[in-house]
Amino acid sequence: MLGLLFAGGGRAARSVRHDTPVPILMYHVIAVPPAGVAFPDLFVRPSDFRAQMDWLARKHFHAVTLRQVYDFWHAGGPLPQRPIVISFDDGYLSQATNALPKLRKLHWPGVLNLKVNAVQKYNLPLWRVRTLIAGGWEIDAHTITHPDLTTVDDKRLWDEVRGSRVELRHMFHVPVDFFCYPSGRYNAHVIDAVRRAGYLAATTTNYGLARPSSPYTLNRVRINGSDGLLGFEHKLGALVP
């Protein structure tokens, strides 16, 4: 089982193969969905989110950043017992107002896949992102405008992929070493652009555990508003006994 392959309590990992898969959760808005909203499953109620995080804690999961996972896979860096990455896409205010307080109580980091125009349009102001960073969160790139990268021309592709990394580094002075494909849309040409832009790995919307053998197509576990706690337990229990 996954939990037996790691050292506990944040200590260095035991002498094991460093190809162990790790779950990466995918969240969007942590808020009650407004009546008639187009995509209600993008909204996870704050009460459900808190219950889900408490369940992870009871099951002895420990949240880590994608960088920590990457370093474990490729350099033998330390990981806690039963590591899990808690990622949030796009950049919504509720990620700072509702997700951060709960993760802070658990002393856990999040991973924010941030599109640049979420900051430029003040969906998530600069100071809010800086507060996340101060709380140990990792900032990764999610393009500038969230297009389908498989349909844009080469200039737009490069501007969205490399340009988002440049912009986020400039705004927040953090590494931005990982990428997230908007809406999970990618092909070989897009992956090549991500590699050339200097990213170490990239996350998708493909369902499953993330594995080091596929660094530019890392799987995630999408958490929907309709999951509640029982659906969440089922998803995690099926993947990580």
In words, what does this structure look like?
The protein is α/β, with parallel strands linked by helices. It has one domain: TIM Barrel, CATH 3.20.20. The chain is 38% helix and 16% strand. The protein contains eight helices and eight strands; from the N terminus they run βαβαβαβααβαβαββα. It has helices spanning 46-58, 66-75, 93-106, 116-120, 126-134, 154-172, 188-196, 228-239; strands at residues 24-27, 62-64, 83-90, 111-114, 138-141, 178-180, 201-207, 218-222. Strands 1, 2, 3, 4, 5, 6, 7 and 8 form an eight-stranded parallel β-sheet that branches. Helix 3 links the parallel strand 3 and strand 4. Helix 1 (46-58) packs parallel to helix 3 (93-106) and helix 1 (46-58) runs parallel beside helix 8. The chain is globular, with a radius of gyration of 17 Å. The chain starts with 23 loop residues before the first strand and ends with a helix.
User: Quick one: CATH class?
Assistant: Alpha Beta
Query: Could you tell me the mean pLDDT?
Result: 93
Class of secondary structure makeup:
alpha/beta
Written as H for each helix and E for each strand, in order along the chain, the element string is: EHEHEHEHHEHEHEEH
Q: Supply the number of helical segments.
A: 8
What profile does the largest beta sheet have? 8 strands, parallel
Percent of residues in helical segments? 25-40%
CATH superfamily: Glycoside hydrolase/deacetylase
The CATH topology annotation reads as TIM Barrel
Strands, total number: 8
**Uncertain stretches of 5 or more adjacent residues:** 1-16
Q: What's the shape?
A: globular
In whole angstroms, the N-to-C terminal distance is 7 Å
The CATH architecture term is Alpha-Beta Barrel
The percent range for strand residues is 15-25%
Number of domains: 1
Radius of gyration: 17 Å
